[in-house]
Amino acid sequence: MCLEIALSPGINLFYGMNGQGKTNILESVEILSTTRSDRAFKEAELVNHNEESALVSGRFLKNSLDFDISVNYYKNRKKTCVKNGKNTTADSIFGSVNIVKFFPKDAEIITGAPANRRRYADMEISLTDRAYYTNYKNYIKLIESRNAVLKQMSELQERDFKYGELMDLIESYDELLPDAAYGVYRGRLDFLKEIALYADRTHRSISSNREKLDILYHCSVNENTDKSMNLTENLFKQRLIFLLKKNLKNDIIRKLTTVGPHKDDIEFLINGTPAKNFGSTGQIKTLAVSLKLAQIDYVFNKTGDYPVLLIDDMTSEFDAERLFNIIKSISADMQVLISSTDNEIFKTAFGGQGINYFKVSGGAVVNN
Amino acid sequence: MPLTPSLDRLIHELQKLPGVGPKNAQRLAIFIFKKGADFSRALSSAVIEMSQNVKYCSSCAGICESDICDICSNSLRDHSKVCVVEKPTDVFHIEATGQYNGVYHVLNGLISPLEYLTIDKLNIKPLVARINSADSPVREIVFALPPKVEGDATMALIKKMIQRPLKISKLAQGIPTGCEIEHIDSMTLARALNNRN
Lengths: 368, 197
Ligand SMILES: Nc1ncnc2c1ncn2[C@@H]1O[C@H](COP(=O)(O)OP(=O)(O)OP(=O)(O)O)[C@@H](O)[C@H]1O
Ligand SMILES: [Mg+2]
Ligand SMILES: [Zn+2]
Fold this sequence. Notes:
heterodimer, A: about 375 residues, Glutathione S-transferase Yfyf (Class Pi), Chain A, domain 2, four-stranded antiparallel β-sheet, 13 strands, B: alpha/beta, 2 domains, binds adenosine-5'-triphosphate, binds zinc ion
């Protein structure tokens, strides 16, 4: 099955009944931006159950330059990527196009596990900052390698000759970790500082100035009682080296590295109270929207371009009119893809002007 | 899809080559068949001759056609300087720059516990023995490993295992991170060799 869509530069509304493929269409744009889908746990899940492979292709126009991106997924093979007709790596496609997603799952950034928040920050930073992305991947590889060695050590006796060899290897990783870890720490701090600035502004305006938003970074390397106190580069590295050593015995038993940015967390405070535990459903939704709107400013500030917005399940999740007005107030010529089960609400709210309608049914666009 | 017994046997063997899947193996087998008997004879004798003649150098683990390679056996080379590389082909790339007059040591891989590549699977201990032995001529180590996690970890580990004071350097940056030695053009590689840090 094949679907080809010509999008308008403005607002594109995909509407139709549940399970017809609206989210799939938005997801395809996410794939062209990041080469992965947040929804699929494994790449193979993106391939139709009855097919061997799946292809997503897009043509983009950015600063009067046009380029093509394709990502091919397979049942039993790694994905392949093509840019402008040439085979290339997923990394070199990653971030060619910037997106900001408003998905129903966004609330999980606030209410979910720490891993959700780390992924949110790492993904958003990486899309506009390749150096961060490369360093982040190195950091994760160092931690995973270290963990693999810890696991081998946990199966040996300390007096084993092999144990000593593996200890040398752990020490080698511990020499490399501070630089990589600091890069992740610094990158996240800078990102959150900027996001907090933008998000607080929108959050105040959505909440009619009743709610103040603060974002704190909880660093596992930081042993100050006040976790929001940032560490200098030297102090961070010293603390990390000290803690890696101190925790080593315990790390071997747990087969995991228990300190470092991969254990950190982000906390959102509304009027000084943690939103995760005490925020109302409405407050959390508002906060999630504020974060995403802040992301638009962030991308614009970093790249000089507005991202493509993907807004999934508009009508069920958000106060559509309000969100819509906010988005339009940012820039009238931002490209937006919206999915919704309802198209009437847009017709009545905006007189249908400037909106490109696509009716989605059975995985196809039936008319527009 | 089975073809004839002989073709299937060839396809079975070809599939063991890296990057060759069932479809490609079939295409190659049919190609070899179509090229005729002379080509098949030349191909198979080249393969057999190579496997009989090519071996790992007993000193540096580079590839050569004698027990000890031309570089290791050359007394005009500087045997106090050892360049540590990942793969045998890296030696040929560095030689092509004409900028290096020492000898080599090929690790035949990099440390990567995630891929079960541990110390014993690589040619690390012979290198350390070569350096640590009492009568070792080695005074300087040049690491020419790819600038990525595996390369950095391998270098850090070898440094730990060295028990004598040595001059240690590595290829200068300017080599893109994550890049394999073989993908670097000679000019860049020559510059990196001359600006070690
Ligand atoms: N790998 C797959 N192979 C075949 N069909 C799949 C696969 N993965 C998902 N689907 C189907 O695709 C459809 C999901 O489409 P999608 O989530 O885009 O719907 P939607 O229009 O966004 O629905 P809703 O309004 O409920 O959010 C479902 O019918 C689902 O069963
Ligand atoms: Mg949906
Ligand atoms: Zn040799």
